[in-house]
Design brief:
CATH topology of the largest domain: Jelly Rolls
CATH class of the largest domain: Mainly Beta
Structural class: alpha+beta
Largest sheet: 6 strands, antiparallel
Number of helices: 10
Shape: globular
CATH architecture of the largest domain: Sandwich
Radius of gyration: 19 Å
Helix content: 40-55%
Oligomer: single chain
Strand content: 15-25%
């Protein structure tokens, strides 16, 4: 049995928080999934149960951007919440270089000093009350944090708006920056260099298009998502998921909900 509740953040958090989720699942035994990579920095707040993330045991944690999928596993029960943050917002909220989180998951206390947050959310009463509590907490923290520099935020939005198709050289030219400078700034404020983030965003674009139909046209999807050709798309799927596009979708359908 699984429950997933989604909620949009309060209006002042638009552009910073992409969504809240409440989840509860009970299964007959350990449940393993392949997740990501995705374009958000994710905070998981667990109400007690542990997770195995690529073999590392964690309870509540924050996960930076990845260029490959990760394997998650719970022991038969999961109960908690997820906050999805844009990378520039995570940099503002955590106040640390985002490359320290790239390709990693770290205990929540290492990035968000609030020892009572998990208990307050658990005891709030229900999902609407929990989402409101997150709104209040995050609005306060974002108000107190210094604003992020405009350049990387603009470049990050351009990458997201184009699903990763805009060349890094074009981004640098529009900003009036060198390629070296834009890569360094992305490492600090996003976690991945723009080229790597573009790969992730193109993959997510292809996955979204493929999941809309029972019989994906991979050639068309490759063109629409900015790949050179279908072979390029297949190679990228293998690099990110370890599987071909067709096998990836079959596995996704077969995995538990």
């Amino acid at each position: 049995m699984a429950v997933l509740v989604q909620c949009s953040p309060a209006a002042p958090l638009s552009g910073l928080v992409t969504g809240y989720y409440g989840f509860s699942e009970a299964t007959a035994g350990p449940t393993r999934r392949r997740e990501g990579p995705g374009g958000d920095v994710v905070v998981i707040i667990s109400f007690g149960e542990d997770w195995l993330i690529d073999g590392e045991r964690l309870t509540s944690f924050a996960a930076g951007l990845h260029v490959r999928q990760v394997t998650t596993e719970h022991g038969g029960r999961s109960f908690g919440m997820q906050i999805s943050l844009t990378p520039p917002a995570a940099h503002k909220l955590f106040g640390l270089p985002m490359h320290l989180l790239a390709h990693r998951q770290v205990p929540l206390g290492e990035v968000l000093a609030d020892a009572s947050l998990v208990d307050r959310l658990h005891d709030a009463g229900g999902w609407p009350e929990r989402f409101k509590l997150l709104d209040v907490m995050l609005m306060k923290r974002f108000t107190e944090a210094p604003p992020p520099p405009d350049g990387v935020c603009w470049a990050w939005r351009r990458l997201v708006e184009t699903d990763g198709r805009i060349p890094v050289g074009e981004l640098a030219k529009e900003l009036g920056w060198s390629r070296k400078r834009i890569v360094a700034r992305f490492r600090e404020q996003v976690g991945l260099p723009p080229k790597a983030l573009g790969r992730v965003l193109r993959f997510e674009c292809a996955r979204a298009l493929a999941e809309r139909t029972q019989h994906p046209d991979w050639t068309r999807i490759a063109i629409e998502c900015g790949y050179c050709d279908q072979s390029h798309l297949i190679n990228e799927f293998r690099a990110i998921t370890g599987r071909t596009p067709a096998t990836f979708l079959q596995d996704a359908v077969a995995s538990p909900a």
